[in-house]
Fold this protein.
Amino acid sequence: MDLTFSAEDEAFRAEARTWLADNLTGEFAELKGLGGSGREHEAYDARIAWNRHLAASGWTCLGWPREHGGRGLSLFQQVIFHEEYARADAPARVNHLGEELLGPTLIAHGTPAQQERFLPGIVAVTELWCQGYSEPGAGSDLASVRTRARLDGDRWVIDGEKVWTSLAHHADWCFAVVGTEPGSQRHPGLSYLLVPMRQEGVTVRPILQLTGTSEFNEVFFDGAVTDADLVVGAPGDGWRVAMATLGFERGVSTIGQQVGFERELAAVEELARHNGTIDDPGIADRLAQAAVGLEVMRLHALRTLSAYEAGSQGSEASVSKLLWARWHRDLGELAMDVAGTGGLTVAAPPYVIDRLQSLFLFSRADTIYGGSDEVQRTIISERVLGLPKEPRG
Ligand SMILES: Cc1cc2nc3c(=O)[nH]c(=O)nc-3n(C[C@H](O)[C@H](O)[C@H](O)COP(=O)(O)OP(=O)(O)OC[C@H]3O[C@@H](n4cnc5c(N)ncnc54)[C@H](O)[C@@H]3O)c2cc1C
């Protein structure tokens, strides 16, 4: 296992750092620190402009093969970019779902025509995507989705309901798991469709979150349509494709986030110094544990990368997800304990909350999305530890 970066990697780090310093200037400098979980509404249009600026200089889709518009960079270099991006306090990117989830899925399972049609829009940040998996009654148990699509001539007609669909209100397209095979149930009947969001048959209804913002949505398909050839993989083979996307979701895309976490921990520590709670041995102990946890996560992330580079398709990502989600949720709780009674009041009426309150409230979701803690533990117990399989209905 190699836990160090090569000279070539460090040269790439210097290149990324310099580019970010030279370009996060002028109007873009005002975007520093904006966006992210619970705060996606911040300067959204300006962040799109920044993302297109990144794209124009070749700083999107870094790990994609060159023939698909990427830069073919190694996993280590992708992580380095994410680290430098967070270190520069660059604004949260708007294109995560297209770049990290759908793009790699299309590269692995899409037809050449689908790749040609959709990948350039993801690279250039001109088409935004959302993920239509979850439904009321189908979250962890994704195979029980009830949204249906039937072929009508040269197009699919879709009826059903999705929920928790992040950023659907900004999305041009949705990659959706739907049932297509008449008479079949669960996995064998599912297909992976690419559905245009801006059409009459699609209604997006934002859900108000604890943070006071609305990042995810209910999405209703009432006779929505998409072209017959916009199914990824064969009809009825959508489960395999959907699982590939989940692998990308739990994989490299979350590995570079430690630097952002470091920044949040520093803010909690600064508040503790400012209000004197750092003198409380309990708080000091938890701050120290958080710092140790961060280092453990970083080393685990590097170990995971080494395993990936060595060809593992493995379940290391589930361990990562479990580690970071719990660490981040605990940090939110620590932030509120450090804030004390100040954490109970809003910064401005009617409901403007500060960064640490937002961290506390949004991080409750970390142990749920991308596969809940319980689901990750099942994966680890079955695939890593080889324990007996969970009974499945
Ligand atoms: C912030 C956020 C953003 C999201 N964005 C999207 C998105 O863009 N697109 C999308 O499709 N979905 C999205 N989701 C939905 C997310 O994927 C689901 O919330 C998640 O899969 C859990 O499903 P559920 O909410 O239906 O809970 P359930 O599956 O009903 O689970 C409820 C509880 O039961 C536990 N549980 C369930 N099954 C088992 C089991 N077999 N063994 C042990 N415990 C179990 C779970 O761990 C959980 O604690 C998002 C969720 C959040 C919080």
User: Anything to note?
Assistant: The mean pLDDT is 92. Residues 130-134, 139-140, 164-166, 216, 365, 368-369, 372, 374-375, 378 surround flavin-adenine dinucleotide (CB under 6 Å).
